[in-house]
Automatic annotation (TrEMBL):
Presence of the UniProt keyword Phosphoprotein in the record: no
Organism, scientific name: Paenibacillus taichungensis
Protein name (Swiss-Prot/TrEMBL): Permease
Family indicated by similarity: Belongs to the UPF0718 family.
Keyword Mitochondrion among UniProt keywords: no
Entry's localization field: Cell membrane
Length: 344
């Protein structure tokens, strides 16, 4: 098994050998470009994004490993509300108890789903948890001290969007949206019409059973951290490139207009990939440029869907499910923020 994996890796390394002469030829130009101000800014932005998100991802995988130890399938089934409305409401408020950033939320929810949590509750928790929690509430209040209505509207819209999408998942998703493990699976019913796959033995998602000791705990946490962090690195790198080589003034010029301002702020939130604990301070810089609605679309969409979290979602859920989830988030955030702007 290990030999096959090494051979597969070798097939990717061989083409890199042909790049060595090219890099040697371009060495003087590469050195000059690497030391340029633009690349220095890109490296700074990349490191800041990664360092901002990595602690929350680490917290998430540590909690995931603890759940592997102490949370059983039977416990999840007992704690899951039988009524779907109650399940959505409880999941929407779980962030108050577990204030985890969106980077750490995905490994935790993946573990809970493997333990038997229904998808509609898991999706609601993923979407609402990064926003509806005391840390983000306090940060938003500090960013907009003279406009508390922005904080209230952010919490309310995030909860409403998460609950609505949880309801849609309950009604329309009838199969396990997680990527299938390689092991043989059995089906466990978690709510009417839904069947969830449970692994028998060793799987690709590190669901194998270890002895309950500290060594196995850290091995499991390390495996999960490496598995999720590679998507964080790719997302942070591409985000840093976009922020470096596309000026903010050019982006703002695209946001003039009643609809374009929403599209710009939502796209800006997706590209920036900021942590939900700090994005309110970035949004406050646009408070004199955009109305309440576009600001809300930035504050609500970013924690639910950005570039790095999209890659992490794709590593956890099936591609078709992630596409449908992304379209639903975008549509509901746009409609909700536009409606609040009209009313307020």
């Amino acid at each position: 098994m290990k030999m096959a994996a090494n051979l597969k890796l070798l097939s990717f390394l061989i083409p890199c050998a042909f790049l060595v002469p090219v890099l040697i030829t371009m060495a003087p130009n590469l050195k000059e470009a690497w030391n340029s101000e633009a690349f220095q800014n890109m490296k700074t932005i990349f490191i800041s994004i990664f360092l901002e998100a990595a602690p929350f991802l680490l917290i998430g995988v540590l909690l995931s490993s603890l759940m592997q130890w102490f949370v059983s399938e039977e416990m999840i089934r007992k704690l899951t509300p039988k009524n779907p409305v109650g399940g959505v409401l409880v999941a929407g408020l779980l962030g108050i108890i577990f204030p985890i950033c969106e980077c750490g939320m995905i490994p935790v929810v993946r573990r809970l789903m493997h333990k038997g949590m229904p998808p509609y509750i898991a999706v609601t928790f993923i979407l609402s948890g990064p926003v509806v929690n005391p840390i983000v509430f306090t940060a938003t209040l500090l960013a907009f001290p003279s406009h508390p209505e922005i904080t209230i509207a952010r919490m309310g819209l995030a909860f409403a969007v998460a609950a609505a999408i949880g309801g849609l998942v309950y009604m329309f998703v009838r199969q396990n949206p997680l990527r299938k493990p390689k092991a043989t699976v059995t089906e466990v019913k978690t709510h009417p019409g839904f069947k969830m796959a449970q692994p028998h033995s060793h799987s690709a998602d590190h669901d194998h059973v270890h002895d309950k000791n500290w060594r196995s705990f850290f091995i499991h946490a390390g495996d999960e951290f490496v598995d999720m962090s590679k998507y964080l690195v790719i997302g942070a790198l591409i985000t840093a490139c976009i922020q470096t080589f596309i000026s903010r003034s050019d982006l703002i010029s695209l946001g003039n207009g009643p609809v374009a301002s929403y599209v710009f702020m939502m796209g800006f939130a997706y590209v920036l990939s900021l942590c939900s604990t700090s994005d309110a301070f970035v949004a406050s810089a646009f408070s004199h440029t955009f109305a309440l609605g576009p600001l809300l679309s930035f504050l609500v969409l970013g924690p639910m869907l950005d570039f790095k979290s999209t890659l992490m979602l794709l590593s956890t859920f099936r591609t078709r499910f992630v596409i449908g989830l992304s379209l639903a988030i975008i549509a509901l955030v746009f409609a909700g923020s536009w409606l609040i702007n009209l009313l307020v």
